Amino acid sequence: MKQEIRSERVQESYQKIDHPSGLTLLLYPMEGFSSAYAMLTTDYGSVDMAFRTDPQADFTRIPAGTAHFLEHKMFENEDGDAFAKYAATGASANAFTSFDKTSYLFGCADHFEESLRILLEFVTTPYFTQQTVSKEQGIIGQEIKMYDDNPDWRVLFNLLKAMYVKHPIAIDIAGTVESIAEITADSLYETYRAFYNLRNMVLTVAGSFSPDAVVRIADEMLRPAPQLQLERDFVQEPEQVAQKRIEQKFPVASPMFALGLKVCPADPKTNAANSIVNEIVNEVLAGDASPLYRRLYDSGLINATFDSETDCGKDFSAVIFSGESKDPDRVAREILQEIERIQKEGIDPAAFERGKKAVYGRYIRMLNRPDSIANAMVGAHFSGLGLYDLLEIAANATQEQAQQRLTEDYRTENASLSVISPLD
Amino acid sequence: MNDSIKRKKIGDGVYFTAIIDPKFKSNRISVNLVLPLEEETAANRAIVPFVLRLRYKDCPDFTRLNEKLCDLYGAVVDGDVRKYGAYQIINLSVQSLDDRYSIAGEPLVQECANLACGMLFDPYLENGLFSEEDVRLERQNLIDTIESEFNDKREYAIGKCVSLMFGGSPLAVKKYGTREKAKQITAKSATDAYREILCRAAVEILFIGCGDPSAAEEVFSARFAETQRQPVTYDTSLPHASAKEVRTVREDMDIAQGKLVMGFRTGETTSPDQVNAMKMMVALYGGTPFSRLFQNVREKLSLCYYCAARYDKASGMMMVDSGVETGNEQKAQEEILHQLELVKQGAFDDSELESTILTINNALKSTVDTLSGLENWYLTQILSGSDESPLDNAGKVSRITKDEIQAAASQITLDTVFFLAAKKEGQNQ
């Protein structure tokens, strides 16, 4: 089944195809571009730590870091590794694992079809042996250490640890040296079969390519996947944060902080839509044009590294403010006070309009690049939205919606502060 | 040269380059003020774009300015400092949506050109100087930025190696200058630096996007015509030495993973062909996931989590940067050098060279699909005295031969090894 999805606003369109194999194809050809970017993504990330494929069976628990480990191992096939195959097409290939998805991607200007074949081939062909698993444990152990040395990463994961009591989002995506030691070739196969069902996956392509060629190659290479009977075991996460403050000493020059507000999640689609409105709320609250930003900047409490973001998935949602500051506790206090003030006094209509224009502009600019389009299509798809819905949600946001989000999502009693402070 | 690219002299030492492609939805105006890097002046010049970014005469309030940017659909104004070889580049840029995408048909391109011009020529002054308050704030921010290099251990180790290699030469001067010099910045010294930049810098203005660049060109031409200028001429071909002896420096730090950085000198690369060959050699040796370093040092021997080589043609340097468990650094270093030796001897397959060519071609051809890719490419070309398009360059690197790769590798000499050791691990062993 093929659908043409069109935006009157930007006068562009893309195709959504439900391929007979069960895979969803989202194809966004872009006129005038020289390169194409393709991503094959499974709806499986670091937070999916328990599943079953038989409703009668117990949930299978998987060690922390398995999704990321699997991503590394997928590149290895019996006939060599995928990077070596891409070497013959010149594509620039990579993969990443996030909280709620694992993506395999390549960008190229030439030989698109050959590269697409490589991508579809290696992600649908698992090959794990105990020997290669053991070797990977060493490599990923090094990767974990590299992240241990990254204060930007530490400040964020310490924050999540402080915010979440039970939710696996609090665990590093790569797991720990101990948790990945539990992974075996068999456990990888079992996890692979559960989550790498084509019905649980999406292929997104944007840029210079022929949609017909993609369909032709998918027809040739992909067999219909079995019915998807995947059930995840979601944890019951309390509304309250685990701890209000967390601090780590680290060799840094000046303190860094991340202040998180734990948002009560709804369904995935609502989480995603609310999160866009929250981007506007963040602009109003702490954007460059806000009174708070001015006050903090003028008192030297924040610098250009100050930023805000919204993050959400199936069963979590959060708003995060971060940056460097000589006094993180004071910045956190000021942000929380400003939230309470605007909750009481109401959002200034002019500030809302400005915030909305800024966020709308950001979403239009996203359509400038094949890679950002392919990425955004995945995120929207897994939350049950289309790419242009993101744009429309921003363009049609109302002040009432923003005020409601501010009341419901920015609950100052559910805030945690993570601080990285210099060694004594 | 690509038809869609037009470079034009619009003033004394001032050039305006328009790179237009209707496929984009935004426009970017990037003003680059180029001066030789000097330790004495670097910090005073570095603060200038950050002060200019805060406000200007027609919009003398930081918050009003940011409100205006929101109204321009989240237009982004950035001030920053770049470094190219021995030159410091003061950069001011504005990026916004094209007029076609504004909801009420506002003329965004014209507004952004006026904004960039206003910031550059009509700063907010009090008694002829930058505001004391603005300079105090941005001085502290500059000091924080200089100090924050220490936060990212990988960057810190690389910075250390570069300083050791080029100590005493302008190539070692950091783009933001030193903390000590930054602390001495005053409203007077920063304003003097601003006036000097406007008078002496070689100016490269780039307009990249889908809109009509003529408004921007006119407004910049008019303003530069009113400005007294004595621009420097920059030398695009600096001599590059070979290393005399290897210096090894080790530092201990409380971190989890050691960072090994090896700085090599490329020797003279006088012709564009030599530069292309060097670029391809470094990519084959350590610039791709199938390169010698990645495949051997990481994949086969598991000595490093990352191990990559990069080439800086402006400094005549190749740098190998890797994350190594403390205790393995000697083995890693030996293997890194061994792989270089193999490249020198030509002990690599034709398929490695073919793959490297494909990969670099792919990257070059993709450059033209992003505003930032185009900006970086053309600015670098202009600064190195060339106007080659990415596509033309792709054609040239495709013809690089194995002999040329070997010749390039043979010119490489190891100069400095810097190892940032993980103290904790060392103690546990």
Topology overview:
The complex is a heterodimer of chains A (424) and B (429).
Chain A: E1 2-7, E2 12-18, E3 24-29, E4 36-42, E5 50-52, E6 60-61, H1 66-74, E7 76-77, E8 80-81, H2 82-87, E9 92-97, E10 102-108, H3 112-123, H4 130-148, H5 151-163, H6 177-181, H7 185-195, E11 201-207, H8 211-221, E12 231-232, E13 245-250, E14 256-263, H9 268-286, H10 291-298, E15 307-312, E16 317-324, H11 328-345, H12 349-366, H13 370-382, H14 387-396, H15 399-409, E17 415-422
Parallel strand pairs in A: 3-11, 13-17
Antiparallel strand pairs in A: 1-2, 2-3, 4-10, 4-11, 5-6, 5-12, 7-8, 9-10, 14-16, 14-17, 15-16
Helix pairs in contact in A: 3-8, 9-12, 9-15, 12-14
Chain B: E1 5-11, E2 14-20, E3 26-36, H1 42-54, H2 62-71, E4 76-84, E5 87-97, H3 108-121, E6 125-126, E7 129-130, H4 132-148, H5 153-166, H6 179-183, H7 187-200, E8 202-209, H8 214-225, E9 247-253, E10 258-265, H9 272-286, H10 292-300, E11 304-312, E12 317-324, H11 329-345, H12 350-367, H13 371-383, H14 390-397, H15 402-410, E13 413-422, H16 423-428
Parallel strand pairs in B: 2-8, 9-13
Antiparallel strand pairs in B: 1-2, 3-5, 3-8, 4-5, 6-7, 10-12, 10-13, 11-12
Helix pairs in contact in B: 1-4, 1-7, 3-8, 9-15, 10-11, 11-15, 12-14
